[in-house]
Amino acid sequence: MSPDFILGPIRDGSWQSHIAADWRRPLARLALLSLGIMVLTARDWAAMADQWWNISTYNHVLFVPFIVGWLIWERRAALASFKPKGWWPGLVLLGCGLFGWLLGTMAGVNTVSQLGAVLALQAGALALLGPRIGWALLFPLVYLLFLVPFGDELVPALQMLTAKITIALTMWSGIPAFIDGVFIDTPAGLFEVAEACSGVKFLVAMLALGTLVAHSCFTSRKRRAAFMTAAIILPILANGVRAWGTIYIAQSQGIEFAAGFDHIFYGWVFFALVVAALLAASWRFFDRDLTAEPVDAAAIGNSTYLSRLAAYRLNSNAVLLASGALLVLVAVWSALSARLEAPLPQQMAMPAVAGWSAVSYEPQIGWQPRAGGADHRMIARYRDPAGREVDVALATYAAQGEGREAGSYGEGALVPGSQWRWLSAAPSNTRWHGEILLARGQVKRLAQTSYRRGDLVTGSVARLKLATLLDRLRLSAAPVQTLILSVEEQPGQDSAATLSAFRTAMGDEARWMDRALAAR
């Protein structure tokens, strides 16, 4: 075959004449299978595209398809050495990818369903092209994983880490400061290490860039590992320096000037300089010959291991038909599970709590937990004879799905864009997770969130998702409830003790919530 990859001699001027004969039908089959996968997983591709375009954290992902195209083009000479052949183990991988997508869809975990959609595309290529071509395309195929938006899960940890780095640098530079969670109080004012200041945007982009550079510019595994370590640590440290710089400038120039300087200099110039510094420091250690072929076609062709794998052949048309059957099976299963809804009463009311009386809900600063897509939402305040008060929010869902997922990002006690900010984590256990919120830098609220499905009462979103997933796999339905108990902190009052006393008076949370459902 011509070393021009799939480019053959031009005979009649048609576009088909540019593609070598051995590649025409395999590429057509691959295009058809890829289209089928993308139609099945269209919701996830639309969601990913929306994040790439509209969320600055993921704008860099818009370049990933072009990078993958360039990486494949670089390998055209090596790919010309092989003929695409159907490979039945690729069908197993395709089934795993589609099942992963199904699990993510049923559990309402977008990252998992999106990852499954990408894995299915990768597996489809292996099933129709074979292991030798798959090995030649290994890095471009793996790099496709950066299409999946990730990083939101890291935000709380990065916020706390940035806050710790910032307070250390602030005190080192002689500025008196006090830290409370993610808030840093200085003479110039109160600063918050908000989600947007966590540095996740730079870290995620640096991971994608670092992976590309490590592969393209190094051959030594030790050098690659050292470069990737630097690519992870440097943006975290740099973000702490950025936050400290803003505080430092604010002490002499004021908060408004510091904020403007932060968005202009730190937002664009500073991190560009950090990237340039990392590449400059690594330049002398690059050990890959940039003129060399990115893969060794001869080594791939002579590999005994790949020869054994290639022996598991299957007719390409049979691979395509089996792939289509997998797509239909998963589509039907997904459609049936999506229709599941548990029966709920038309009206619900907050159950009584022994020794506590329902009173008018009048918070110092407005607080309304978010429960998007819930079929019933209630909030009430209870007071005991000692004057202690507890706010109770209860949301009930007939089903879990897109736009109606308990525990998803932005749902629960902390509502993005409200007056409330996340301050720190609070003691938790298996039945609830605790967090401390702060409003206007002065009012604190301790919130404890529980999720309930059937007999399960947990503070873990992961356990709730798993329970939801198992029910939907069995095509059975059960209501899901979110219970948030919270207390506005008052001088001389132990908020945790107040919530503990209230829980004791409630008794078993599941039975208490059942009374709201009138199920028992």
From TrEMBL:
Keywords: Cell membrane, Hydrolase, Membrane, Protease, Transmembrane, Transmembrane helix. Residues 326-508 form the Methanolan biosynthesis EpsI domain. InterPro entries: EpsH-like, Exo/Archaeosortase_dom, Exosortase, Exosortase-1, Methanolan_biosynth_EpsI. It comes from the Bacteria. Its main location: membrane. The chain crosses the membrane at residues 52-73, 85-103, 123-148, 160-179, 199-218, 225-245, 265-286, 318-336. One of its GO terms (molecular function) is peptidase activity. It is a multi-pass membrane protein. One of its GO terms (biological process) is proteolysis. The keyword Transmembrane applies. One of its GO terms (cellular component) is plasma membrane. It is found in: Cell membrane. The keyword Membrane applies. It holds the Pfam family DUF3485. NCBIfam families: 8TM_EpsH, EpsI_fam, exo_archaeo, exosort_XrtA. This is Methanolan biosynthesis EpsI domain-containing protein. It comes from Alteripontixanthobacter maritimus.
